Amino acid sequence: YIFKNIDNNSGFNKKIYKYMIYNNDISGKQICNILLEQKLVDIEEEELNNFNAGLVSPYDFMLNRIRNLDITPAQLALDPHSASVVVTNVNTGEVLALVSYPGYDNNRMANGVDADYFSSLLNDLSTPMINYATYQKTAPGSTFKMVTATAGLMEGVITPSSTVVCTGTFDKIDPARPPHCWIWPRGSHGSLDVSGGIQNSCNNFFYEVGFRLGTLGDRYISDLGLQKLTKYADLYGLTEPSGVEIEESLPQVSDEDAVRSAIGQGTNNYTTVGLARYVTTVANSGTCYNLTLLDKLTDHNKNTLIDYSAEVRNTIDMDEAYWNSIHSGMRKVVEAKSYYSGLGVNVAGKTGTAQESKSRPNHALFVCYAPYENPEIAIAARVANGYTSDYTAQIAKDVIQYYFNLVDEEEITGTAEVLAGGSINTD
C-alpha cells in the first residue's frame, strides 16, 4: 500500500532527492548531468566540453543556466522566485498590465484539463497558480511614506518647510528598544523637510510624524496616531480592494504602533494592485479610482451594452504646495539612482524594503509614475523576498522603457540582466 501510493508521488521524490543531495549521495556535477540527460537544458558544445573536462564548475554551470533563462527562478523555488507588476493609466484608472510571476499556460487548462500538467502546478513549490499581483500581501515598507506625509501635512503637524532632525535613533518611545533609522549605526540624515524625508526615506522623519499624529497635549496615544494614518490611507484607497474585476485579498491597515506604522511597518499589508491604486492617486494629485481591467461589453454589432470605465472613488483636496513637496521628494529618489540617468523620460518614485521574517530576505517594492512633468502611467512592482528595492526599481525601469518605446524590445527580454547592486540595509 505504501509503495503503491509513493510510486508516482513527486513530493516524496523531491524529498528523496533533497536528502540525497544533503547527504552527498548525489554530487553537484551529477545534478547538472541529470538536467542534460533529461534534455531539460540545452547548452553550447564548447561549454559542454569544458564542463565535462572539469573547467566549468557545477556552480558556474547552474549560474549560466539561470543567467540564460534556461532555468527560471520559479523552477528553483528559492528566494526570490515570485514577483508582480501592475501598470495603470493615471488619468483614467484603467489597468494597462497586471502581471504575476511565475505563471502557467492557460491553454493547457481549457477544453479539458491536462491532468499531468495540472498536477505539476499543484506540486510546484513556487505556487504559480497564485495571482501574486492581487492575492499576495506584504508590508509596503517605505512606499507607505507618502501616506504619512499626507497625514502630517493635512493634520498640521508638519509643513512643507518645517524640519525634523534625524540622529539615527528615535528615543521618544520604547527607551529599552528604540526604533532606528535605516542608516543607523552608520550615521544619520541630519535636518530634513518633508521632501528630503521622502528623498532619503528617513525613518526618523516619519517616526516623528507618526509620534506627532498620536500626541494629544503632552500625551502620546498610539491609537490616536493609528486612527489618523488609517484616515489618510483610506483616502488613497488602501482600506478596500482596488476595484479590479477579479478576486483580490483585502488590504490591512496597521492597528498597532503608530510610530512604526508610519514607515509602512506595524501590521500594514497590501497587494501590489492596491499599491498601484495608491500611487495612481499620488501621480494625478488626488483622484482615487476604482481600478478596472475591462473596457466595455458590446454586442455583435459593436453596440456598447456595459461601459466598464473606472469610477472615481474619492478625491483628495490638498494644497498644491503639499503635493509639490511629495512629488519633489519622489523625483529626487529616482534622480539619485544612476541606472535611471539618461532614460529619456523623467520618473518619480519611492522604494520600499519590508521585513517579514528574520530567516528570509526582505520584500522589495517600488512604486513610481512617469513622465514626472505630466504623468501618464503609474507602476507598482514587488519581488517577494527580493532583498532590496533597488532590484525592483530596475524592473520598473524596464517597464517604462518598453511602454515609452525607449529601447528595442530585444534589449529588455531574452536573457537575465545582471542588476546593479543595491544596499540591503536601506529603506
Characteristics of this structure?
five-stranded antiparallel sheet; alpha+beta; two-stranded antiparallel ribbon; 427 residues
Summarize the structure in short.
By secondary structure, this protein is of the alpha+beta class. The protein has helices at residues 2-6, 10-22, 28-37, 45-52, 58-67, 73-76, 115-122, 145-154, 194-199, 203-213, 222-235, 258-261, 272-283, 320-335, 389-403, 409-412; strands at residues 83-89, 95-101, 164-166, 190-192, 215-216, 219-220, 287-290, 296-298, 304-307, 311-315, 348-354, 363-370, 377-383. The strands form 5 sheets. The chain has a 5-stranded antiparallel sheet. A two-stranded antiparallel ribbon has the order 3-4.
Please give a structural write-up.
- By secondary structure, the chain is α+β, with helices and mostly antiparallel strands.
- The protein is 35% helix and 15% strand.
- The protein has a five-stranded antiparallel beta sheet. A two-stranded antiparallel sheet has the order 3-4.
- Helix 10 packs across helix 11.
- The longest helix is centred in the last third of the chain and has 16 residues.
- It is globular, with a radius of gyration of 24 Å.
- The termini are far apart.
- The mean pLDDT is 92.
